[in-house]
Specification:
With about 220 residues, this protein is of the alpha/beta class. The protein has nine helices and eight strands. Strands 2-6-1-7-8 form a five-stranded parallel β-sheet. The longest helix has 19 residues, at about 205-220.
């Protein structure tokens, strides 16, 4: 396909979601929050009461998610669940089911369907390595676990949710372990990805850096 894709992969709270949204707006591209699909699956699993280890039923739910996105709002059927899928409980469940190969495969068609003109910015953990291996630009966005824990803590406070910094830090370390050690699509930089450390850059600086890389790459290909 001749539709350009920018992938931004990285661990939880590395800033990839915010960066990807702003960059998509700057380029007038579509945006895919692949993590939201896993969170939506986790929410559906928790609500259905099925066994969280029943990979077959979870994959069935994932393959037919009745979801859609309206700018920064996320809907499951007609219900807005933007905030509901951002809880720590849903995040932890999403991380666990994301380790199931059958669930990851069930979501690939849904994810690739977001590739539409004029282009797509996709963030996640395997966007550049598995879902869009032919992406024009691949970014691996990282940050120290302390910086990420602080960011997550502030995000939760802004939503009126209180949590413990040490607990958040432990959760991030555990999620990183699950994401990097899973057999199916582990969290690793694509071989042709550009690694950026957002610990030392602001959101605007990160967006501008990726924007310049994309323009440079596009000019080289033209």
């Amino acid at each position: 396909m001749n539709i350009p894709v920018i992938t931004i992969d990285g661990p939880t709270a590395s800033g990839k979601g915010t960066v990807a949204q702003i960059l998509a707006g700057k380029l007038h591209f579509h945006y895919l929050d692949s993590g939201a699909l896993y969170r939506l699956t986790a929410l559906s699993v928790m609500r259905s009461g099925i066994n969280p280890d029943d990979t077959g039923q979870i994959a069935s739910i994932a393959s037919s998610l009745p979801c859609h996105f309206e700018k920064q709002r996320i809907f499951l059927e007609k219900e807005e669940v933007t905030d509901a899928i951002r809880t720590e409980a849903i995040g932890n469940m999403a991380s666990k089911i994301a380790a199931f190969p059958v669930v990851r495969r069930a979501l690939i068609n849904l994810q690739t369907g977001f590739r539409k003109a004029p282009g797509l910015v996709a963030d996640g953990r395997d966007m550049g390595t598995v879902v869009f291996p032919d992406a024009e630009l691949k970014i691996f966005l990282t940050a120290s676990v302390d910086v990420r824990a602080e960011r997550r803590y502030k995000q939760l406070l802004e939503k009126g949710i209180s949590d413990n910094m040490d607990s958040l830090r432990r959760d991030l370390i555990e999620r990183d372990r699950r994401d990097t050690e899973r057999k199916e699509a582990p969290l690793v930089p694509a071989v042709d990805a550009v690694t950026l450390d957002s610990s030392v850059m602001s959101i605007d600086e990160t967006v501008e850096r990726i924007f310049r890389l994309f323009v440079q790459k596009s000019n080289n290909c033209s």
